[in-house]
Amino acid sequence: MTSASEPLPTARPRRDPLLGVAIVAVALVYVRALAFTPIEARQGAAQKILYIHATSAFIALYVAFALMAIASILYLWLKDEKLDRVAESAAEVGLAFTTVVLLTGPLWGKTIWGAWWTWDARLTSTLFLWFLIVAYSLLRGAVEERGRRARYSAVLGILAALLVPFIHLSVYLFRTLHPMPILLKPSAPSMPSEMQVTFFSAFLAFLLLFAALLRARYRIATLRDHVASREQEHA
Amino acid sequence: MTPDNGAFATAAYVLAALVYGAYVVSLKLRERRLRERLARLESAPRRASNRPAGA
Amino acid sequence: MGEAPGTLAASWIVARKDLAIEFRTRTAFLSALVFALLGVTIFYFAWDATAVAAADLAPGVLWVIFTFAGLLGLQRSFGSELADRAIDGLLGAPISREAIYLGKALANLVFVSGILAVTIPAVVLFYNLPFGPGIGALAGIAALAAVGLVAVGTLFSAMAVNTRMAELLLPMLSLPFFVPIVMGAAQSSARLMAGRPIAEAWPWLRILVAFDIVFVTACTLAFPYTLDE
After folding, report:
1. Is B21 contained in some domain?
2. What is the pTM of this model?
3. How many CB pairs under 8 A join A and B?
4. Which residues of chain C does A156 touch, with a Cβ-Cβ cutoff of 8 Å?
5. ipTM (interface pTM)
6. Is residue B49 part of a domain?
7. What's the domain count of chain B?
8. pLDDT computed for residue A6 by the predictor
9. For C115-158, what is the HEC assignment?
């Protein structure tokens, strides 16, 4: 059941300006990054991949996944179904962002390291994040009863959050003891201000996109639960 | 000598747009299907019951 | 009768019950054991013996096989409770929920240790591992790895058994969590068996210990939430 503080969903489609604004923002960032930001001399145009790769990575891990973990803990404590829907939505939107990170990462890595994949600590942690969210989604799909599904997912969400630092640490340790061939060391000199502005704008635009997608996904979760309740009543 | 790897950048930007775009489309489709199901439920002839109105 | 048993005593009672059931038929144990031995053998033939020395291959093979044999053992952990809602009997008893978890985990630990007790000598034999102090270290590492595997696996087994695709779901949920265990165990045992100083294996052992502490605690606390009551 939806709780009393939420309006009941209706069959009428809702207008959501947030998503439109977010898409426009991302499009503008695309234009700025590709056409109006200088090319980095040593790395070439491929360095621009970072504007979407690094920002999506940050949002996937520190916004989506963190929200999923926090909502999971709060759900086990407060038992409010809304929190389960937030966790579910954060996970799925996070999966989209993580997929983008995993697709754009090797494209950048090939130009920097000469290899598509190097078991770098961050990329590997992202791969595991992807696996964990997929496992989370499969678990949700396998449990039909709503209360149990929420509890099980919350437990997995919390354990997954505990696991990620271990994966990162293990892979980091693995790498420092097994130095990987690095053809071009990505330098970190101070970034010219135009690049900084692009980075910052990209981060804001993708954050906006995350918020819009989260809200849309949350609406779907609420609708689905409402429809399921109504169908049960009619049965 | 600045390496010529613009193709990688283009590929990455296109892939990202495709993934996010496909996800947006998937969300819209799922929402539409759910609203259709809800509309059908709401317009279905109500069975006689003692259930109070509202969920 | 006296007062209800404390958590540790209750865990031991639960563990003994599970082990007694398992011991009566021994099917699961023998199947997992045969699986482990076959796996160890198959891996040997999967590599070019001239390119990689068998002894170098051994740690990796041992811990991968340990993972999959462990999963086989974990599958049966809550299966017996499913029939006729047998778990209600456990839940009705005056023992804490944590005791049920610890008892089940303890039974799984005995099970997995049994498999390791046969598999490790088999690996030493088949892969021509040098007999030295490294073997003793291997047993210690095996104990640490088994605790971690069993802690996580018992919890997920409790959840998976209530779903439609339990046999597929348990590996899917557990394997990401087994990765730090396998890495820690494989890396530290490889170094110790090659006669390297313990300082080199130490960072990996620390990860194993930290993992065990964190996840035994977390899984014990989380277990009550997996029960329908």
Report:
1. yes
2. 0.89
3. 118
4. 159, 173
5. 0.89
6. no
7. 1
8. 66
9. HHHHHHHHHHHHCCCCCCHHHHHHHHHHHHHHHHHHHHHHHHHH
